[in-house]
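Record Enoyl-CoA hydratase family protein, 251 aa.
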Amino acid sequence: MPITTSTIEPGVVAVTVDFPPVNALPSAAWFDLGDAIIAAGADPTTHVVILRAEGRGFNAGVDIKEMQATEGFDALIGANRGCAHAFGAVYDCAVPVIVAVNGFCVGGGVGLVGNADVVIASDDAVFGLPEVDRGALGAATHLARLVPQHLMRTLYFTAQNVTAQQLEHFGSVYRVVPREGLLDAALEVARLIAAKDTRVIRAAKEAINGIDPVDVKTSYRLEQGYTFELNLAGVADEHRDAFVTTGKARA
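=>
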């Protein structure tokens, strides 16, 4: 199954994504992912959620090939709404969400990670937003939660990646470990949280969200409005077609 939920040990639930070859999710899968995360947190026996992925990388964003193969705007709207749902689910999950990031984490992957509570990464993990190379905008809201403001702007405008080691330096990644030790490292933190009184932890999650200086859901939807403008202007299609045809950004 592409998205599965399993109890690893008492109180610790893993939501695992497996969409070969690169975990680029079609529109419906973003909704499924969000639903799985919310459902896991709603279970009173869950104390903490680990969001992880199988395969080459954690997440490659939306499935652009699906978008370009679909007539009209339904796939674009579905992808945007689906991403908003999944990112919001990580943020609104009633219990803390630990993300275990392996390999690449780009586009929508940054949206998931930026809204998480704890980030563990493999030593080969890289994070980035290739949005401007795809004629789209989005997830600057979430990248700004991982790096300082000016670096966020530089990475966004240049579509460059940042390494797990750099994010560990900024404190947004809690630990960087070899890939084979990624789940164990996530479990170490999960056990510390799961050992607490879940009633207190759930209240703490809600309280911390309540004092957040940025409304991440409204901020992200504002960004998406510019994506729709670029799409209506025909700019986005040019870039997506170039990517599907050549696998490279349009000059």
